Description:
alpha+beta, Lipocalin
Amino acid sequence: MRWILLCGIFLGVSGCGHTQVHLYAKYLSESEVNRISEQLKKDDFDVDVNQLTFPISIRRNSLVYSLMLPEQSELTRLTQSTAKLGYSVESEVPLFSNNHSFTRDSIGLFLIPEGLDVAALMSYEGLVGRYYSKACDVEVQLLLNLDKTYTLVGALQENSDANTFDNKQETLLSGFWKVTQYPYVQLSGPKSHPWVASFEAQVQDEIEFGVAVENTYLKPLSEYERFHLCQFYKGRVP
């Protein structure tokens, strides 16, 4: 009973509780997540698995922790635990990494399978989305999908009898897209009508209506019959 009382008083200071490990499993298979979780639990860590996006600054196996972590030796212990699984921790980042922060008794664990180029994958994921046309004869929208397909559609049309928009968008083109070597993006047609069109992706920080935005532009490398000199862009608030 006395031990329990002391543990309650000094929990988080004396190390009575297990350190919480937040395992970022976005790039791990289900079987690998299970293998890692089992080992960490065996080594007396509490494990919380998530599929959150890695911070931009994380490009290798890393630990992210609070400077108020009661026992800094837990970092060494966790590094040793991951080493048993074949992962070498290459970076220890204190307090926070971008918008990911951790409490005083938890550690973020970011693991990347060998051979996976996270920087290239993040670049690819950053290109996915809906783009709006710029410098085009007609207003269109370009949808780059996560499954590496794309669709070029007509813009939403305003109904003549009311101030409303028709939600139906005509599909003008469809096919596949890929990153040949970032920042170069290639759109192609179906196998029955093969053609390719290459664009250069450019990311620019701009001010719109007094708000800082990050705009991604797709600029054509040549004048293509299907796109002429159309540019496409999408934006987000950082």
